[in-house]
Amino acid sequence: MPCYLQVRLQDINLDDRSYSLNPFPEDFKQDLVQSICELGILQPPLLLEQQDGYIILSGRKRIEAYLQLCNNRLESSQQKNSNDQKITALSITTALEKEEGYPLHLFKVLLEHQLLGNRLTLIEQAVFLKKAAKVLDKQDLVSFLPLFGLKTKPHIPGEIISLLDLEVSVQQGMHKGIISQRSGKKLARFSPDDQKKLAEIIYEYQLGGSKQQKLLERFFQLTKRKKITTERLLDLWKETVKEKQLNGPQRSTSLLRWLDQQYHPRLARAEGEFRTFSSQLQLPAGLRLEHSPAFEEEQITLSIDFKSKEELAHVWPQIKILIKKDKEE
Fold first, then answer.
1. What residues does 89 pair with on adjacent strands?
2. pLDDT at position 151 over 60
3. Where in the chain are the domains?
4. Adjacent-strand bridge partners of 49
5. 289 or 160: which carries more pLDDT confidence?
6. Listed residue (126, 195, 191) closest to 160, CA to CA
7. Which residue in 266, 264, 243, 246 sits closest to 255, CA to CA?
8. Collapsing DSSP states into helix, strand and coil, what is residue 59?
């Protein structure tokens, strides 16, 4: 069981990231320093005791923020020695590592401590499972899944770990919640260079989940069909809009529409012909012409808007005459 200890900061190895779950470490925010200054450390960090000191299991930012606070206080008091500064921490000792079940216990405590703050991102889940897989069996890995809100299915740990094979910018997008897991799976079908290019498109146009799915599926199918690279396909679209002044949302709409047209060329031609036909009719306001879904039938529907039931009742006799006349002919 972890126990509370007063640990000297100099005894904590800040360079050892063996158990860090974030592959994209960020500097702590100064708000954290201010919070520790005013309230103290409300959630002690978790350490692993070793013969020559301690390594961090969880709570690195709190330790770094507290270290900065101590240094700030030393500077203001003109003291030079910070060796005696201590921090309250939870500690697990490696003296128990030979006991049965120790690795599983260690990773359970690590995960539970991490989840006290926030839910793990997809990439953090992948890093955790990959580290745990080095010392635990598949059944143990599956036992962690409910803590991620996932079903206990044996194939899931492997699927999550495979996310770490994605190109770095894709992993960063998933870590930040920009790229969904489903999109990550689709991106895995592309080369690393294409993954990076597609991630840039998702970032630039701020595409949500469903639009990400559509973009990736269209790019995958079209690059295979046309036997060209993702970058070349993107350049073909850029040629069609280079003379147009489009903002971000307009450009994303244009790109997705163009991909649809390339993916369904016959449907695109049919839609173009229908728009031409509709414009030639010069329909007044309030009238709409609609075609069947995907032009599966020849039928066309003309819709008319009326301001009220009375207006419809007023013109209905004339409409009936036209319909009757058309049937007689």
1. 5
2. yes
3. 3-118, 166-263, 266-328
4. 54, 93
5. 160
6. 126
7. 246
8. coil
Q: How far is 110 from 87, CA to CA, in rounded Å?
A: 19
Determine whether 166 is exposed, middle or buried from the number of CB atoms within 10 Å of its CB (0-12, 13-18, 19+): buried
Q: How many of the other CB atoms lie within 10 Å of CB of 40?
A: 10
Report pTM: 0.76
- SS3 state at 195: helix
From the list 255, 166, 271, 170, the residue with the least C-alpha distance to 214 is 255
Q: Is the pLDDT of residue 235 over 70?
A: yes
What is the band of 31 on the pLDDT scale with cuts at 50, 70, 90?
confident
Instruction: Give all strands (DSSP E) within the chain, no chain letters.
Output: 3-8, 12-13, 46-50, 53-58, 86-93, 287-291, 300-304
Q: How many CA atoms lie within 13 A of 214 on its CB side?
A: 15
The number of residues making up the chain comes to: 329
Q: Classify domain 3-118 by CATH number.
A: 3.90.1530.30
Class of residue 59 by CB neighbours under 10 A (exposed 0-12, middle 13-18, buried 19+): buried
The 10s digit of each residue's pLDDT in 67-84 is 888 777 766 665 555 557
